[in-house]
Design goal:
about 400 residues; mainly alpha
Amino acid sequence: MQIGFVRSAIVLGLLAVVGPFAIDLYLPAMPDIVRALDTDDAAVHMTFTVYFIAFGLAQLIYGPLADRFGRKLPVFIGLVVFILGSILCATAVDVSALTLGRFVQALGAAAPMVIVRAVVRDLHTGAEATRLMALVMLVISISPMLAPLTGSAIIQFGSWRLIFAVLAVIAAAAVVLMATQLPETLPPERRGRIDPTAMIRSAIYLLRDGKFMGLTLIGGFSLASFFVFIAAAPLVYMTQYKLSPTTFSLVFALNAVGFFASSQFAASLGQRFGMARVALLATSGFAAATSLLFVLVWSGIDDLPVLMVLLFVGNTCLGQVIAPTMVMALEEHGEHAGMASSLGGTFQMVAGGVMILLCSPFFDRTALPLVGAVAACALTAFVIAVLTLRPARQGNAAA
C-alpha cells in the first residue's frame, strides 16, 4: 500500500524519533543525575553504553519479526517495552537501577528504528529511497535540536525523574500515531515464517557481503562519533566552558543543524554524482574537519567557538554519509530487508556503545579526550570508506 511521500516521511520520522529522544532529552540533567544518585561520570556514561548496545542487539529480533508478522505489530510491542523502561528509569533509586531501566528502554526503542528502515525499503528504492530517508531524518532532527532544550525546561519544573515520565508519555503518543496514521506496508503474501535456519543463512549471506558490511561500518563509525559526543559533551560543556543547561542545549542544537540540513541534499547530490562518490567525499571531509579540531585542541587552542565551528563543518559532511550508506546497504537486499535492516542497525549502535565504553575512562570533563574520540571514529569511517566506496565509485555501481 502506497502512502503520500511527505506524510509517510512525517509519520516514520515521528516514530523513529522515540529512541533518539530518549538519548537527548536527559543530557542537560547529567550533572544532576551524578549528584542525585551519588555516583560518578563513568557510571552515568555506562547508561549510554548499555542503551546503545541493547538498542543495537534488539534490532536482530525485530527485523525477523517484521518480516514474519508485518511492520506494525513489532512496533506496538517495542513501544510498550519502552514505556516500562521509562517507568523503571523514573523510579530508579541508584545508578544500577537507572542502567537497568535504560537497558529496557533500548530494547523497546529498537523496534521503531528497524521498522522505519524496512518501510522505506518497502515503499521506494534508489534516489527516491534516499530522498524519503533524508526527509525522515529531517523529522528526526527535532531530537538533537529540541530534546535537550525540552529536557532543560523540564528540570526547571521538576527533578530529572520527570524527564523519563515525559518519555513514557511520548511513547504512548507514538502508539496512537502508529495505529491511526501508518498502514501496513508488508502484505501477508510477502511475509515469511520465522525460520531460525533461514535467518542464520540470511545473516551469514549478509555478513559475507563485503559491500554491505563496509557500508554498514561506515555508517556505524560515523554515528559512533556522534554518540561519543552525546555522552561526553554535556559534562565538558557545562564544566570546562561553564555553560548552563539551557545554553548547552542551544549549543548542542547548533551542532546538529549542519548534519540535518546537509542530509536534505543527499538524494539530489547522489542522483547527480552517484551516492558512492558523494559518501566518500563527505567521509573525507568529516575526517579532515575532526582531525584538524583534534590537532588544534591538542595544541591548546580549545576555545568553545573553535569546537563549535569545526564540529559544525564535520557534522555537515556527516549529513551526506548516513542516509546514502543506509540506502546503498539495503539496495541489493530487498528479499532480506528485515534482516539487513536489523544487522545494519545492530552494527551501527553497538559501534557507538563500544566506542563510549573504550573512551569513557579517558573522559575528564575537558575537550581533548572528547575531540580525540570523535576524530578516531571519523578516521576509521574514512579508511573503511576508501576500501568500500572507491571501487563502487570507479565502476559507478552506486550511481
